[in-house]
Amino acid sequence: MAERTRVVVAGYGRLGAELARGLAQADDVEVVGVARRAPAGAHLTLAGRDVPVSADVPGLLDATAPRVLLEASLPEAAEGHVRAALDRGISPVVATSGLSSTFVEELRAVCRQRRLAAVVAPNLSLGAVVLLHLASIAGRFFDHVEIIEMHRQGKADAPSGTALHTAQLLAAARDVPFSRAPTTRFTLPGVRGGELEGIGIHSVRLPGLVAHQEVIFGGLGQTLTLRHDTTSNESYVPGALLAVRHVLKSQELTYGLAALLGLE
Ligand SMILES: NC(=O)c1ccc[n+]([C@@H]2O[C@H](COP(=O)([O-])OP(=O)(O)OC[C@H]3O[C@@H](n4cnc5c(N)ncnc54)[C@H](OP(=O)(O)O)[C@@H]3O)[C@@H](O)[C@H]2O)c1
Questions:
Q1: Backbone dihedral region of 215: left (phi > 0), alpha (psi from -120 to 50 degrees) or beta?
Q2: What is the pLDDT of residues 85-107, one digit of tens each?
Q3: Which of 44, 137, 152, 185 has the fewest other C-beta atoms within 10 Å?
Q4: 151, 212, 228, 246: the active-site residue
């Protein structure tokens, strides 16, 4: 049997724990370590195997010698974890959102220089990646569009990074800006939501939601609605596996999963 790809997962919160459990089930992957702030020095069991847990990412990488670091902690910790991986020739797959564009460009340059693969995937959900692709096609044929993103009530930021990215992508795929029907009299402030590049963006936060997005295009006598629903965090596992497998056969940085799905 081919050797399994050794992966350390940094972050064991909502995303990291789901990814660690999901990857540990794959025949070609072995999760050899998990990083979180606490409790340091502990172990956990994944797919029947004992896995070390540590807050010391460089130490964990040295002790476990992974091929891939799957970064799924928080933006303030991610850069340090990725640098520790690069220093050791370990390919990073970054699921953590909110990396600065400066850091992504630095990462791209280091990868090019060292012929090392990395994937930065702010959205691991394959359905969301396909929705973005379809939306950028549809946006060429409609002059009006609004985005409604819906997330769990505890989400700290609004709008979601995916909604912003969708608006930027929609705008970049057109020569002329979208136009937004004006409202002349507000009886309740804020009801039209935010606006980016002529695109209305609305954020809904409710218990019971996970991550959902609608993109509604409007034209003469017609609308077109694209909608994606994440019903559980398991949705992120296939995208993470795709990225982990990709770095084994690449020597550069790939941003987003669209290229890995043949959508670019
Ligand atoms: N790419 C995608 O598709 C996608 C999907 C969902 C979320 N995200 C992003 O993924 C990130 C994590 O989200 P989440 O909901 O899982 O957050 P979370 O539940 O708050 O979990 C964060 C995890 O990071 C760990 N952590 C924080 N600082 C650390 C450090 N210095 N060293 C080691 N571990 C550290 C925490 O450790 P403790 O457990 O000890 O507190 C925790 O396990 C966010 O940036 C989020 O926006 C991306």
A1: beta
A2: 999 999 999 999 889 999 999 99
A3: 185
A4: 151
